[in-house]
Amino acid sequence: MTGERLLVVDDSAEMRSSLVDAFLNPMGFEVLLAENGAEGMKRALADRPDLIITDQVMPDMTGLEMLRSLQEAGHDIPTILITGEGSESIAIQAFRLGVVDYFKKPLDPEQLLAAIRRGLQQESLRAVPSPRATEADTFRALLEIGQSITASLELEIVLGQVLEEAVRFSGAEMGDLMLLDLETEELHTRASKTSDEGVEIGLHVPVADELAARVIANGNPLVSSNGKNLLYVPLILLGQVVGVLGVSNLDPTRAFSVNDVEVLSVLANYAAIAIANARAFQESRIERARFREMLEQSSDAVLVIDELGYIILVNQGACEALSIDLLSVLGRTIGESIDNPDLRGLYEQHGNRQVTRGEVSLPDGRTLNAQLTTIEGMGCVAVMQEVTHLKELDRMKTKFVTTVSHDLRSPLTGILGYVELLNRVGELNDEQLGFVERIKNSVSTMTNLINDLLDLGRIEAGMDRAKENTHLRPILLQVYEGMQSEIVTKQLDFELDCPADLPMVLGNPLRLRQAFSNLIGNAVKYTPDGGDISVTVSVTDEHLIVEVRDTGVGIPVADQPHIFDEFYRADAVAESHQGTGLGLAIVKSIVEAHEGRVWVDSKAGQGSTFTVTLPTLTPGKGLMDSPRAP
Ligand code: ADP
Predict the structure, then answer these.
(1) Is CATH 3.40.50.2300 what the domain over 1-124 is classified as, yes or no?
(2) To test the ligand 1 pocket, which listed residue (584, 588, 598, 606) has its Cβ within 8 A of the most ligand atoms?
(3) What is the pLDDT of residue 630?
(4) Separation of 614 CA from ligand 1 center, angstroms?
């Protein structure tokens, strides 16, 4: 992915291999290895890596000693320090030396990757001016310190740096950086320099300093030479005084100048910016932690892929479901790291789409419902929920319905047979004939319902899989012929616009006829006498598009999302028109079994257009041979 050169310095072979072989190499980094600090030092000087990842505890020379030696030799290479134990003092030393980040084992690959990226982007870390700087030097150094300070998110380090520079610039003997505690409103020393030892950071010591309190109250710098020379400047954040940067000299001859006030004010501004950064970072860190926690707690499997196709986040649920481990997939593509063919297929199919849904089967028999969503500026998020139980319920429901329907059909045939025989065994009066007619109608409605139910069960169960190269035109003509008498009776104007040279589709002719028969049948049924119906077929690169348009009663917007559900009938027609509410469910199942789509555009009172798309046979498979229409 990157090609940047990293130097890994670690005395443990096991660590070297788990970090390098399992993580850094697969991510495309060029990795140099060193087994101890001295060797690391040599390689760093000879090969100039872009970044160093070093263990702290090594036999001859610690990671920090190596880093210090490199810096003394004038080489400031971004470095990430790793320790087994970790202590505050190591952390402070590490940050003083300007490390990019500091990790305790075990490593979190995601955080390590983020630190590596940060380190590679980082250019200059610190600029230390000479004690007696000229004005130009001062200006340049201030600028550089500003860059370094505002680039760092570690507040303690920045405050320490600011104080160190403040003392150095002003030629003071000591100094303190004090911040107001937001909750208690007390002033706390956060960084302090009292001797040549260096700046102490990470402090939180309350102070009662009258002069500092005065600066906080009025927001102005303060110079005093009462007893000792002292200069205090306020830290101002969003118009509020949040702290004081102060330097002092016991030597009464070393007073502070106006220039010192200005330089310290600039430094105080840097500190204020750092505080703002740290607060913002802290908030985003909390948000991130909350988000991670939510992801981990979620029983759904979640996978995030960046815009270049690399996996950047995987939760525990996804690791378990897909039998993967975090280290082996982070920073790699789906193709490289995930075996599941369904998920790979869905991701390929997703491409640049907004949302793609589908099922992912796992080798242990479980089924996940996956939704892939594109998120602008981030990439693609795949969320997968287990639906094995629902699938099983659905299968049981279909089986139950199919069995019951099947068992109901025989007695109905018996009823119809005996009703037909009734007038053969004796003459029936008009009233009796009327009753017989009603029985026949009811039985026929029940038979239709049962046939529809059985069909739906068969289609959903994937029977009728047999498909052949199929021409649509003869199918539509047959459907039209079957309905001609009704069309004539209702005086409908019927138009079929279907080119003779349509490409074929791979389909089951019987089922396709059933689908179009349901759609055209509905158009005829729901269009009042004298209305218009048109069936139009057109072709795009890869699909046939069939539109069945009518000028009938239309479908209210509230009903439209449900009409493809089983047994759903719009209230407006439920009384006036006979039906089972299964016709469109059958259409949808058939179309989807042909990898097509169906949808409706309709306006109540004005008419409806049902559109079906079906993939055409792709040329090159030898199936498109002279698609002659019959
Ligand atoms: P039904 O047996 O009720 O026609 P369908 O599943 O075929 O069942 O259709 C479901 C519902 O969709 C119908 O009850 C009706 O409300 C509506 N519908 C379907 N096609 C049309 C159409 N062409 N015009 C108006 N409404 C329609």
Answers:
(1) yes
(2) 584
(3) 32
(4) 21
Q: Which of 314, 382, 323, 390 is nearest to 348 (CA)?
A: 382
What residue ranges do the domains of the chain occupy? 1-124, 127-294, 298-385, 390-460, 468-615
Q: What is the mean pLDDT of each run of 10 residues along the chain (630 residues)?
A: 80 83 83 90 88 89 89 84 76 75 81 81 42 58 66 75 87 92 88 82 86 91 86 91 92 83 89 84 86 86 92 92 89 91 93 88 93 91 93 85 84 90 90 93 88 83 81 95 95 95 92 95 97 96 94 95 93 89 93 94 96 79 35
Can you name the CATH fold of 298-385?
Beta-Lactamase (3.30.450)
Report whether CATH 3.30.420.40 matches the domain 390-460. Answer: no
DSSP string, 387-453: -HHHHHHHHHHHHHHHHHHHHHHHHHHHHHHHHHHHTTSS---HHHHHHHHHHHHHHHHHHHHHHHH
Distance between Cα 569 and ligand 1 center (Å): 6
The rounded Å distance from CA 581 to ligand 1 centre is 7
Residue ranges of the alpha helices (H) in 226-360?
258-297, 316-322, 326-329, 334-337, 341-350
Q: Do domains 127-294 and 298-385 have the same CATH topology?
A: yes
Q: Among candidates 474, 503, 508, which has minimal Cα distance to 589?
A: 508
Q: Which amino acid is at 419?
A: V
Query: Given the structure tokens 């998920």, which residue do they identify?
Result: 343
Q: Name, in order, each residue with C-beta under 8 angstroms of 249's C-beta and a sequence gap of 6 or more.
A: 171, 172, 173, 228, 229, 230, 255, 256
Q: How far apart are the first and last CA of the chain?
A: 56
**Where are the strands (E) in 69-128, listed by range?**
79-83, 101-104
* Ligand 1 lining (C-beta closer than 6 Å): 518, 522-523, 526, 550, 552-555, 563, 568-570, 573, 579-585, 608
Of ligand 1's listed atoms, the one at least distance from the Cα of 574 is 14
Whole-angstrom Cα distance, residue 448 to residue 451? 5
Q: Give start and end residues of each alpha helix (H) in 526-565.
A: none
Vertex 35, ends 31 and 38: CA angle to 5°? 105
Which CATH number is 127-294's, of 3.30.300.20, 3.40.640.10, 3.30.450.40, 3.40.1400.10?
Answer: 3.30.450.40
User: Model-level pTM greater than 0.70?
Assistant: no
Burial 222-231, CB ≥16 within 10 A → b, else e: beeeeeebbb
Q: Which fold has domain 468-615?
A: Heat Shock Protein 90 (3.30.565)
CB 476 within 8 A of CB 497: no
Residue 461 alpha carbon to ligand 1 centre in Å: 24
Amino acid symbol at 569: R
211: exposed, middle or buried (Cβ count in 10 Å: 0-12, 13-18, 19+): middle
Per-residue b/e over 9-28, b at no fewer than 16 CB within 10 Å? bbbeeebbeebbeebbebbe
Q: What is the pLDDT of residue 86?
A: 66
